[in-house]
Fold this protein.
Amino acid sequence: MNTDLSVLITGASSGIGATYAERFARRGHNLVLVARDCARLETLATRMRQEHGVTVDILPADLTQPDDLAAVEARLRDDDRIGILVNNAGMSLSGSFVEQTTDDIAKLVTLNTTALVRLASAEQLSEIGSLIESGAIKPIIDRVFPFDATADALAYVETGRAKGKVIISMK
């Protein structure tokens, strides 16, 4: 696996995002961690630096906010070291559709769809070798795989089957 590639992970402060950070850092990848909670990002970044000796940048951002989303897009576009995007930030709403406010629905669509597309686009889709998406099977780019996201995505990258940039979408 090419550990020269840095990994940008959205929704990195907890859950699956933090698991991806841990696993990529363990394999020697430098990280760019993105989430709303700056304190959690700092804690995770410190631990990854100490335990794995990798470089970790944090980018506090709420991807439902246009300026924050633009900052993450710019980082993806301008930082040639980033070769893997783990598009993990997302949200869900409890209750039925009619119970939701228009603002809540708009926020959900912004985070789960608009941010995903804009960040993938910022990674220059024409240069991406692989899109790995957990969940549904859709022909989006070259290949899309249903899988246990953490284990199979990392195995795919580690075995060298991923060519070029890689996007891992958790939507």
User: Anything to note?
Assistant: Confidence is low (pLDDT under 50) at residues 125-150. The beta strands are 6-10, 31-35, 56-60, 82-87, 128-133, 165-169. Residues 30 and 54 are 5 Å apart (CA to CA). The chain has five helices and six strands.
